[in-house]
Write a structure and sequence with these properties.
Number of helices: 11
CATH superfamily of the largest domain: L-amino peptidase D-ALA esterase/amidase
CATH topology of the largest domain: L-amino peptidase D-ALA esterase/amidase
Number of strands: 16
EC number: 2.3.1.35, 2.3.1.1
Shape: globular
Largest sheet: 10 strands, mixed
Radius of gyration: 22 Å
GO cellular component, one term: cytoplasm
Order of helices and strands: EEEEHEHEHHEEEHEHEHHHEEEHEEH
InterPro entries: Arg_biosynth_ArgJ, ArgJ-like_dom_sf, ArgJ_beta_C
Strand content: 25-35%
Structural class: alpha+beta
Number of domains: 2
Subcellular location: Cytoplasm
Distance between the termini: 40 Å
CATH class of the largest domain: Alpha Beta
Pathway: Amino-acid biosynthesis; L-arginine biosynthesis; L-ornithine and N-acetyl-L-glutamate from L-glutamate and N(2)-acetyl-L-ornithine (cyclic): step 1/1; Amino-acid biosynthesis; L-arginine biosynthesis; N(2)-acetyl-L-ornithine from L-glutamate: step 1/4
């Protein structure tokens, strides 16, 4: 986004962009020895909190802790995040570590332990080194700062196999009042629709009721985080947290009015941007692969078809090879479970290098393989399939499948 689109203006920053939010980070030595691995997000004022979490039956201790906090009546004040160890499949001991983390943060920040959210990412099955976690919290507390740099450093500290940090921020107007929203996330592997090994944190100074905040988030993830896939694995730790401290001073949103619609547009931009950043940074990948289904009868039909294509290993491998192997795309659509007429499908490839039609009514057209390869050699590639059944559409995001993906995950614990 550049400039002003639908009243939403992109600005520099991330989780510290909104009024009253601060961040800090440190190298606690939890797993990594050469980089920061802990981050802290703090709000000067109590926050309404909303969250969405993994659909995996195996849920990490931080997921259980945060679900309890979000569904309770205690305002949120801070989020403690560590990278390297997931605190998943750690039993009662792991839950106890969440409580100890909250107590440690509460002590140094002077807030209730019930207002502390926690998040972890990394290796499953290992117990957290609580001495390092507590030392990290004590180190970060005096470093809390509301500047852009502190937010950026926090976004770097939560990375695992990510190759780049991921953050975004926007401003918009609610009732004539300027409101800011920012976010950061991590995610590169174990990424699959219905939430993935991703942690995402969104902060805003908007005044909005807890009920409207949760509804806005729950609805938006359906078209953003739930429409990305890297490898088909749904993690134990996925968490999206949305905190609103109300410091912008707008009239509180309590119903689905025009202000609510603007808020939802801003949230969608934040979440879609972060989701695409994760898909485009999939482990070992060289390209963001976007699939749009148009001409669908229903949005659900379009979603099923788009997801099926981006999760197809053969299609992902073809994108890596810059090979216009359109048969793999049509095949993936065919086994998706969604009904359509393959003899009416038109398929197009496009990127910064151009756009071209590959098939018309289910049959290949006379196209240049050389030009197709050029189009597929860009860092962002889009496939558009028109199934000619209606006006609905949906987009999913993934990445190519490379040799490096296997290498990264063959020795992830070492």
């Amino acid at each position: 986004m550049s400039g002003n689109v639908d009243g939403i203006r992109k600005i520099a920053g991330g989780v510290t962009a909104a009024k009253g939010f601060k961040a800090a980070s440190t190298a606690a030595g939890i797993k990594y020895r050469d980089r920061k691995d802990m981050a802290l997000i703090y709000s000067e004022a109590p926050c309404k909190s909303a969250g969405t979490f993994t659909s995996n039956i195996v849920k990490a201790a931080p997921v259980k802790w945060d679900k309890n906090q979000v569904t309770g009546n205690v305002p949120a004040r801070t989020v403690v995040i560590n990278a390297g160890i997931a605190n998943a499949c750690t039993g009662e001991e792991g839950m106890g570590y969440c409580s100890q983390t909250a107590d440690a943060a509460a002590a140094v920040l002077g807030i209730p332990a019930e207002s502390v959210l926690v998040a972890s990412t990394g290796v499953i099955g290992k117990q957290l080194p609580m001495d390092k976690i507590k030392a990290g919290i004590e180190a970060m507390a005096p470093l809390l700062d509301g500047g852009t740099d502190s937010g950026t450093e926090a976004s770097k500290a939560i990375m695992t196999t990510d190759t780049k940090n991921k953050e975004v921020a926007v401003q918009f107007e609610l009732g004539g009042v300027t409101v800011t929203m920012g976010g950061m996330c991590k995610g590169s592997g174990m990424i699959h629709p219905n939430m993935c090994t991703m942690l995402s944190f969104v902060t805003t100074d908007a005044a909005i009721s807890k009920e409207m905040l949760q509804e806005a988030l729950s609805e938006d993830i359906k078209d953003t985080y739930n429409m990305i896939s890297v490898d088909g694995d749904t993690s134990t730790n996925d968490t999206v947290l949305l905190l609103a401290n109300g410091l912008a001073g707008n009239e509180e949103i309590r119903e689905k009015n025009s202000d609510y619609q603007v808020f939802c547009k801003a949230l969608n931009y934040i979440n879609e941007t972060l989701a695409k950043k994760m898909a485009g940074d999939g482990e070992g990948c060289t390209a963001l692969f976007e699939v749009t289904i148009v001409g669908a009868k229903t949005k659900d039909q379009a979603k099923v078809l788009a997801k099926s294509v981006i999760t197809s290993s053969l299609t992902k491998a073809a994108i890596f090879g810059h090979d216009a192997n359109w048969g793999r795309i049509l095949c993936a659509m065919g086994y998706s479970g969604a009904s359509f007429d393959p003899e009416k499908v038109d398929l197009f490839f496009k990127s910064a290098a151009g756009e071209m039609q590959i098939i018309k009514d289910g049959v290949a057209v006379d196209y240049s393989e050389e030009q197709a390869t050029k189009i597929l050699s860009q860092p962002q590639v889009t496939a558009v399939a028109d199934i000619k059944m209606g006006d609905a559409q949906a987009t999913a995001w993934g990445c190519d499948l490379t040799l490096d993906y296997v290498k990264i995950n063959a020795d992830y614990r070492s």
